[in-house]
Amino acid sequence: MFSFIKRGNFSAISVHDVDDIINKINLIDIREPYEYEDGHVPKAMNIPMGTILRDPEKYLDKEKEYHIICQSGGRSAKTCSELSTRGYKVVNVSGGTGSYLRPLEK
C-alpha cells in the first residue's frame, strides 16, 4: 500500500509506488527528450519541463490529475509547485527515474 505525502501545495508519491497505479495515472516525464530516450518509466509521456511550464494549457486539463517525474525528483517538484499555483492537479514522483527499480523503456 502506498501513501501520498503533502509537499506544500502539491502531493508526492514515491517512484517505488508508481507500478501499483501505473495504469490509472497520467504520467508525464519532464526530462529533456535525449534523457527520455535513454530510458523512461513505462507509460510515461515526454513533455520537457520548459515546454510544459511555458504553455501548460496546451498539454494539461485542469480537471485531470497528473503525476510528474524527472531524473531524481528535483525538477518535478519545482514543476509541480509552479503548476499547482496555476490551478493544475499534480503529484510529484519522488526519487524519479533514477530510483525506479524495474527496467526502463527505450
UniProtKB/TrEMBL annotation:
<dbReference type="InterPro" id="IPR001763">
    <property type="entry name" value="Rhodanese-like_dom"/>
</dbReference>
<feature type="domain" description="Rhodanese">
    <location>
        <begin position="21"/>
        <end position="106"/>
    </location>
</feature>
<dbReference type="GO" id="GO:0016740">
    <property type="term" value="F:transferase activity"/>
</dbReference>
<protein>
    <submittedName>
        <fullName>Sulfurtransferase</fullName>
    </submittedName>
</protein>
<dbReference type="InterPro" id="IPR050229">
    <property type="entry name" value="GlpE_sulfurtransferase"/>
</dbReference>
<keyword id="KW-0808">Transferase</keyword>
<dbReference type="InterPro" id="IPR036873">
    <property type="entry name" value="Rhodanese-like_dom_sf"/>
</dbReference>
<dbReference type="Pfam" id="PF00581">
    <property type="entry name" value="Rhodanese"/>
</dbReference>
